[in-house]
Design a protein that fits this description.
Number of helices: 12
CATH class: Alpha Beta
Number of domains: 1
Radius of gyration: 17 Å
Distance between the termini: 34 Å
Order of helices and strands: HEHHEHEHEHEHEHHEHEHH
Oligomer: single chain
Strand order of the largest sheet: 1-2-3-4-5-6-7-8
């Protein structure tokens, strides 16, 4: 048990606080622009964990434009020293994700329906009747669960889709939050928050845990967590790494944790 983070992380989980998983893809993207090995993805993950991050997320795409196969393995080795933290590997299970899941067995696999070469994730799974996704993901979810890996499905905020996610075997959903982020501090914010809150309640009613991610940042995260019940984890990468250019990575992680704590405080 790592003494730098274990007591604080354990206390947060006992309180049911939202976990912060730091996505280090953008660190890898910067490193890949040169052949010097800097900045180090493993070093960045270590600094984030030392500062109080509850987990590390990577999304290794088939073209390896940011996270590479070696990074996935090196981070898996690092995470063994941080048993209070979770390793989350995202990706399309029909591309390269399942190989990593079988090899390193992270705590969580987040299935994302991206196409190869997609710029960034921009939609959730379609699990409606007669859609091919449902039957295709079901056996892969079963395989992950047999390996001891929790599966979260990347989903749009749609209450009606939550029972469908549970029906294919998922234990969690990650709500795609870009529509909320785009509406933040506009007249549409309340409508988006109502939609996400209704989806979170539907997920809980279906027996699913709720994660969230995409375009969350220090400015909009608190409002989201105050309005949307029961969010277990947020995965944040782009904004967090951008903030780290100004504040430093460790202070940025601490600042995001302050936002999370403030959102959970009684009002």
């Amino acid at each position: 048990m790592n003494p730098l983070v274990a007591p604080e992380a354990r206390a947060r989980r006992q309180r049911g606080a939202t976990a912060l998983s730091v996505n280090v893809n953008k660190v890898a993207l910067l490193r890949n622009t040169r052949h010097l090995g800097i900045p180090s993805v493993v070093r960045a993950a270590t600094l984030a964990l030392e500062a109080g991050a509850d987990g590390i997320t990577v999304h290794p795409r088939p073209d390896e434009r940011h996270i590479r196969s070696g990074d996935v393995r090196e981070l898996a080795a690092l995470m063994k020293a941080w048993p209070e933290a979770e390793y989350n590997i995202e990706g399309n299970p029909f591309h390269n994700l399942m190989g990593f899941i079988r090899e390193v067995r992270p705590q969580q696999a987040t299935f994302v329906p991206d196409s190869e070469g997609q710029f960034t994730s921009d939609h959730g799974w379609n699990l409606a009747a007669h859609a091919p996704d449902a039957e295709r993901v079901r056996p892969l979810i079963e395989e992950c669960r047999a390996l001891g890996v929790r599966v979260s499905l990347f989903m749009d905020a749609d209450p009606a889709a939550m029972p469908l996610a549970r029906a294919v075997g998922a234990e969690r959903v990650e709500l795609y939050t870009e529509p909320y982020a785009a509406a933040h501090r506009t007249p549409g914010q309340a409508r988006e928050l109502d939609r996400f809150a209704a989806t979170a309640r539907a997920a809980a009613a279906a027996g699913l845990g709720v994660n969230a991610g995409h375009d969350l940042n220090r400015a909009n995260l608190g409002d989201f967590l105050r309005a949307v019940p029961g969010v277990l984890e947020v995965s944040i990468g782009h904004a967090l790494i951008a903030d780290a250019l100004e504040l430093g990575l460790a202070e940025t992680v601490r600042d995001y944790q302050r936002v999370i704590r403030a959102a959970a405080a009684p009002r």
